[in-house]
Every structure is written in structure tokens, then in C-alpha cells.
Amino acid sequence: MDEPDVPEFSRNPSELLRVGPGFDLAGVDTGSTPGFAGGKAEGKDLLKASDRRLSELQERLFAQSRGGARDAVLLVLQGMDTSGKGGIVRHVVGAADPQGVSHHAFKAPTPEELAHDFLWRVERELPGPGLIGVFDRSHYEDVLIHRVHGLSSREVVEARYGQIIDFESSVAGRGIRLVKVMLHLGKDEQGKRLLERLDRADKYWKYDPGDVDERRFWDEYQQAYQVMLDRTSTAEAPWFVVPADNKWYARIAVQELLLQALEAIDPQWPPAHFDVAAEKARLADS
Fold it and tell me: What share of the chain is helix, strand, coil (3-state, %, to 5)?
């Protein structure tokens, strides 16, 4: 029986969502679904239909590394509180074999981490060959929060943009393909998601009173994100801004960006390092 047709993106998301010269974050409709004409049901169908492709590419990437290939992928997720970073990890990256995924959620730095350069702890969590790495928040917190709250001087923050560019260039040079995603959530939608956490006992564990404190700095964060995007979206490590009011859209968009990164690597199954016929004969005699 033929499988039903599943809607696809009408235009390449990596082109539609990429941050380039003159990009205006305020001009992005957070409720839009660029390149996808379907609705929630069709989006869920596409997510499910593409799971197998993502899983196979990830397995090939992992297998290829056993033959000495250095390739890896690093998905960097940034966004305001409740923007859906955890959902991306569960519903998109969750399709991959866990042994081929490394995930790290960056929290406030520890005393040990504060004793080093701000990129020190990031370097330690980079994915090894054959892995898909996921950063739930990242080194960009050190320019976003620090800019908004003045945790570092403006001169230090300004210098960090250049340090980040140099660092990511080095990372790309090691065979790690970066996919940097800002999940762009609207303020009204964030308010609805926070209220849902307060209305449901099974969501209390997700609620942090500090999220409301940060919400008061909404405009300042939007400005900080704009500067971050302007300064650190490069050819080697571009930013992609994904409208995130519709969780289903954000998931299929990030899934497609990951698929494109893996397809660009085009990982191959490694050849046998043994004589297949001889091993079959040995097995038959065993």
C-alpha cells in the first residue's frame, strides 16, 4: 500500500532562515512558518516522515568515524525562556541513536569555570568525531546576559564577539559543522507558555520565578540578540532565526537544517576491514 504524500518545504529553509547583511530581528513574524504551507497536522507528519532519514544519516556519521573520519555536527540552540529548546532535543534530536549524540545544557558557570576563559568550558563539551552535539544555550550567554545585565564591561562583551568568531572558525576547521539556531519567540506567546506552567501541576517543575524577572528585560534581550546575530553570523557558522510561536514549525525547521548539514557531509558506510568471504567461511565452520 502506497504511503500518503507528506507536505514538504516549498523553499530551502537554510536560505529562508539564514541571517545575512541587513537582517532585522524585529521584522520577523514569530508566528510565521516560512517555506511551509501546511498546518500543524501536516508539520507533525513531516517530522515523523523525516525521522528515519535523520536516524540513518546520524548512524552513517557515527559509523564513518570508526574508519577515522573527523566529521561531526554541533547544533547550538539559543532563545528566550520557553522558546522550545527542550522540545527540539526531545522531538528532533531524539530520533537519533543516543550513542551518537552528546548533549550539554549550559548553566551558570561554576567556580572552576569562572577561573578560566569563558570559552574553556565550551571547548570541553564539543562533540567528538561521528557525533551530533547539542548545546542547550551556549557560549552566547556570555554576550547576551552579560550585555543585558552588565555582568561584564561593554569592552569585554565587544571583544567576545571576535573571540567567538575565531573560536567557531577553529571548530569548523576541525570538521565540526555548526548549525546555530535562534528560536525566536513572541512575548505574548511566552506569556501563554508561562501561564500554562502555572495552571498545570505537571508543569510546575518547569516553572522558574526568575523567568518573569528576565521577561521584564524583553526589549533589552531583543537588542542583544540583534547585535549577536549581526556580529557572529559568518559563512562558516551562520545563524538561522526560526520563528518559534508554533512549536511544530520550529521542530520541522530545525530538523531540516540538521538534515541539510548531515547531507552536506554525506557520511558513508565504512568498508570492511576484514575479508568478508573468509569470515563467512569461518562462521560456517564454527
Answer: 55, 10, 35
